[in-house]
Design goal:
A hairpin with a 7-residue loop joins strand 23 and strand 24. The protein has a five-stranded antiparallel β-sheet with strand order 1-12-11-10-9, with no helix packed on it. A five-stranded antiparallel β-sheet has the order 2-8-7-6-5, with no helix packed on it. It is about 0% helix and about 40% strand. The protein is globular. The chain is an all-beta fold and about 450 residues long.
């Protein structure tokens, strides 16, 4: 069952011209800061123990990859550094993350990137390093990077904005997508669309922007409802988010998984993908699959939903052991997440075709310094994650691995008779076919034989 909520049931005044941009006043002077130049790299690059030379252009150089054995693949350190590196994302062979840098006015977070087309020699460069400003939570699609930025925050009021930049052009300017007060955070990008959450009305709403023309940026409210809609994700025309909307089937306001076909922004078609009494959080999606972590009585588990028919999602348990499984991501037929079943956090994977689980990162034989591997992201066969030593306050590094071998087997040519979609025809398929034998679903009963 899905709640019957109007897009205007919150009592908010949404006229025909309403958008996330004009629903609140623009801060004086903000429009003049719509675009800004990236600062010189040398001003904020500190000396590193790996001996990497400092550059004054956008390209920092080629950081040597440090290999760590892991299954049929080798994990490598993307950019060896003494700085804390967090929140990686990846698309194609471009990896982005936030890095804590010592600048002239103190330490703050900047956005960095690496092209790992050649994993033994990643091309590392800075995306945004504004002085005394935090740039965090990056997301990447193709060559466009988006992030949240606290340039306009003051000691009295938080004011995060969403910025983006096309890294294909080293001289490209950053664009402030949301030049207004309040907070716009947790951006995600797919194609020419960016989604984020906005707290202009005292709760969190999801907004969408089309950035096809950087000089004309239409922005739309996707979820103008009471309660919170947060941590959105996007794939093609579909946006998904976690939502604590209270209604008869969710009286306690647990986080549920919602989605919407945002092709028509004036009339998005909304769906309830998962409605359970337990919280469902940290949503990701790709293709016809949505994944999330779900709270149980004892731990967090990972679930997926096949939403190829969004009105009738099919829920799939992915990682439901007694350990904690968190921060899932999905691309194609592969799901990844962090898992503490071995006493520390490791990265695991699941193949939706073979229905088999496999480990991606783990402590290696003879290893003396053990680490946690956290918050994985995947694009194709490239997986990235935070690698954190178990010592208190130790900085994290960004590691990656290019998966290969039978663990990631795909099914480019499904065989005839494969009823359950595992790319194998066997007795299980016969059972499924037998259950539906002589079934007729033609929309006129007289047409059935």
């Amino acid at each position: 069952m899905q709640p019957n909520r109007s897009r205007h049931d919150s009592g908010r005044a949404f006229g025909p011209g309403f958008s996330c941009i004009i629903k609140k006043p623009v801060r004086e002077g903000n429009a003049m800061r719509n675009k800004r130049e990236v600062k010189a790299v040398g001003a904020k690059t500190q000396s590193r123990g790996d001996g990497m030379a400092r550059w004054t252009t956008i390209l920092l150089g080629l950081a040597g990859a440090i290999g760590v054995a892991g299954g049929a693949w080798t994990a490598f350190e993307v950019h060896p550094s003494a700085n804390d590196q967090r929140a990686p994302d990846v698309h194609g062979r471009l990896i982005v993350w936030q890095e804590l840098i010592q600048g002239n006015q103190g330490r703050d977070w900047d956005i960095w990137a690496a092209d790992v087309t050649h994993p033994d020699a990643p091309q590392v460069f800075v995306v945004s390093n504004y002085e005394a400003t935090n740039e965090q939570n990056p997301s990447v699609y193709d060559t466009i990077v988006v992030w949240q930025d606290d340039y306009w925050s003051t000691p009295e009021a938080s004011d995060w904005d969403v910025y983006f930049r096309d890294t294909a052009n080293p001289g490209a300017l950053e664009v402030n997508l949301t030049p207004m007060p309040y907070d716009q955070i947790n951006p995600r990008i797919y194609g020419n669309r960016i989604v984020w959450q906005d707290n202009s009305f005292g709760d969190w709403d999801v907004c969408v922007a089309d950035i096809t023309d950087p000089n004309h940026l239409p922005i739309y409210p996707l979820t103008p409802y009471p309660h919170d809609q947060s941590r959105p994700t996007i794939w093609r025309n579909t946006v998904a988010w976690q939502d604590n909307y209270v209604w008869e089937d969710n009286p306690d306001g647990a986080w549920n998984v919602y989605g919407a076909d945002a092709l028509r922004m004036n009339k998005p078609i909304e769906y309830l993908f998962s409605a359970l009494p337990e919280d469902q959080e940290n949503i990701a999606m790709a293709g016809s699959y949505v994944v999330w972590q779900q709270k149980t009585a004892e731990d967090w588990d990972v679930y997926a939903a096949d939403v190829s028919d969004p009105a009738n999602p099919k829920i799939l348990p992915i990682a439901t052991d007694t350990s904690n499984a968190m921060y899932p991501d999905v691309d194609g037929h592969l799901i990844v997440w962090q898992d503490d079943r071995n006493g520390d956090w490791d990265i695991y994977g699941y193949n939706l075709v073979t229905r088999r689980e496999f480990i991606i990162s783990d402590n290696q034989p003879g290893q003396k310094e053990f680490t946690d591997q956290l918050r994985p992201r995947i694009s194709g066969t490239l997986v990235v994650w935070e690698d954190v030593p178990l010592t208190p306050d130790a900085p994290a590094d960004i590691f990656a691995a290019i998966l290969d071998g039978p663990e990631i087997a795909a099914c480019p040519n499904p065989p005839a008779g494969d009823a359950n979609g595992d790319c194998v025809v066997n007795l299980q398929d016969f059972v499924l076919l037998a259950e539906g034998w002589l079934t007729c679903n033609l929309d006129h009963p007289d047409a059935c034989p």
